[in-house]
């Protein structure tokens, strides 16, 4: 049975935060705190434990909603959480993106710098797109079987 807490988080998470343990993401974290005052953000339990990130009321420390019999690093755990909670993976700092390049299917870079309003809007659109795509992927999978 699916827990009500899980359903609440699927509905209310705006993204899963991920940053490399070597990157200093304080500026980005502060921006997220200011811009997502009313919606929750998630972070993998393993990443929270190894980083010195201070908690705030809209940050949820997440564990996978299913059992895994392997020791996962924070990169894999964060990606699985994003998939499990139908939420975008918010990758902070470019060096962190480089670390995840083996998992990248398609990359799109722009030289344009988005202002705060546009960046927040794009995160919201990514969240909606993931939800829409998820349902289509499930339906397509059912048709193949």
Automatic annotation (TrEMBL):
<protein>
    <submittedName>
        <fullName>Uncharacterized protein</fullName>
    </submittedName>
</protein>
